[in-house]
């Protein structure tokens, strides 16, 4: 039996007005409901809505991340704006696209995170998220959940790059040299290191293998080696250096290249100014990544 237009309108109104300032619960964890500077109302996240920071595998190359919103309520949630800020960053990023999170569903909203605040200690890293709702209400989440430790990973990687770039320009060259042929093909990648002349000491410890590429075995490298030892030191008095690493595929199964997303992202282990070991991704031109994958095809047949 049709409940009639009034009942249908009532249900529709309830969804459109979901999580309005008057309907949200103010939780003790967030100091309650307060007016925002622009006059809109700010309220806490209700118990049946969870917000988390995350990152997909194909986002590891930069600051791209996701804000995962799980709507456990019985009403649709319409978000028209999203901001990310906090002690982990030097600025605020805005996402002004409208997104609906239907009742009982989870949606990942992609965002570009602000630059890392390298002066912030790892123990003090925090990401804050602000959601702007369709009805004008604002939800502010302080120290959003980070279950997969996105913040320390990104902060460490980005600030390591900043420290390295202060001392030297470290990058892979665009050309890849091939040794041998067919199933004996070995790709030789050259890493160029050019000091900036600024103060500091950079130790290049090792280059680690990936899910797709590993060290080519030879008289000095065992078949199960998982890294290329570099053992180089760079400072303002050093001249330019070149380091060759010999590479073979880690695997040759049919899915190795077809499904690869991170196979050419080599972890580079460094020490900056005598500090602890840190890891960054070796800068690799797109043409170089393509050449390495071509070498895998040649060797794997």
Please describe what this structure looks like:
With 301 residues, the protein is an alpha+beta fold. It is 16% helix and 38% strand. It has four helices and 18 strands. Strands 1, 2, 5, 6, 7, 9 and 10 form a seven-stranded mixed sheet that branches. A four-stranded antiparallel sheet has the order 11-12-16-14. A hairpin with a 4-residue loop joins strand 17 and strand 18. It starts with a helix and ends with a helix. The relative contact order is 0.13.
Essential attributes:
4 helices, 301 residues, disordered N terminus, globular, 16% helix, single chain, 38% strand, alpha+beta, four-stranded antiparallel beta sheet, seven-stranded mixed beta sheet
Q: What is this structure, in a nutshell?
A:
This protein is of the alpha+beta class and 301 residues long.
Strand content: 35-45%
Could you tell me the radius of gyration in angstroms?
A: 25 Å
Low-pLDDT regions? 1-41
The helix/strand order is: HEEEEEEEEEEHEEEEEEHEEH
- The N- and C-terminal alpha carbons lie at a distance of 66 Å
**Helix coverage percent:** 10-25%
Number of strands: 18
- Please give the largest β-sheet: 7 strands, mixed
Total helical segments: 4
Mean pLDDT: 84
Summing up helix and strand content along with how strands pair, one would put the structural category as alpha+beta
Shape: globular
């Amino acid at each position: 039996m049709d409940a009639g237009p009034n009942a249908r309108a009532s249900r529709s109104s309830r969804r459109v007005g979901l999580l309005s300032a008057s309907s949200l619960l103010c939780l003790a964890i967030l100091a309650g409901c307060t007016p925002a500077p622009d006059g809109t109302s700010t309220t806490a996240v209700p118990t049946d809505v969870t917000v988390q920071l995350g990152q997909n595998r194909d986002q590891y190359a930069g600051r791209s991340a996701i804000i995962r919103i799980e709507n456990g309520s019985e009403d649709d949630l319409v978000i028209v704006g999203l901001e990310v800020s906090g002690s982990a960053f030097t600025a605020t990023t805005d996402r002004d696209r409208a997104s609906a999170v239907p009742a009982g569903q989870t949606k990942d909203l992609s965002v570009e995170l602000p630059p890392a605040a390298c002066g912030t200690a790892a123990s003090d890293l925090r990401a804050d998220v602000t959601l702007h709702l369709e009805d004008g209400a604002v939800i502010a989440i302080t120290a959003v959940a980070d279950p997969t430790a996105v913040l320390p990973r990104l902060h460490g990687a980005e600030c390591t790059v900043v420290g390295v770039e202060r001392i030297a320009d470290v990058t892979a060259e665009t050309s890849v040299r091939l040794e041998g042929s067919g199933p004996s093909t070995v790709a030789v990648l050259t890493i160029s290191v050019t000091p900036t002349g600024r103060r500091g000491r950079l130790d290049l410890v090792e280059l680690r293998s990936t899910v797709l590429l590993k060290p080519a075995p030879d008289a000095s490298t065992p078949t199960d080696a998982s890294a290329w030892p570099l053992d180089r030191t760079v400072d303002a008095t050093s001249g330019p250096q070149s380091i060759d690493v010999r590479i073979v595929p880690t695997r040759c199964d049919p899915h190795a290249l077809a499904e690869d997303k991170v196979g050419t992202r080599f972890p580079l282990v460094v020490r900056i100014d005598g500090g602890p070991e840190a890891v960054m991704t070796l800068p690799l031109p797109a043409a170089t990544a393509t050449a390495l994958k071509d070498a895998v095809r040649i060797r794997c047949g």
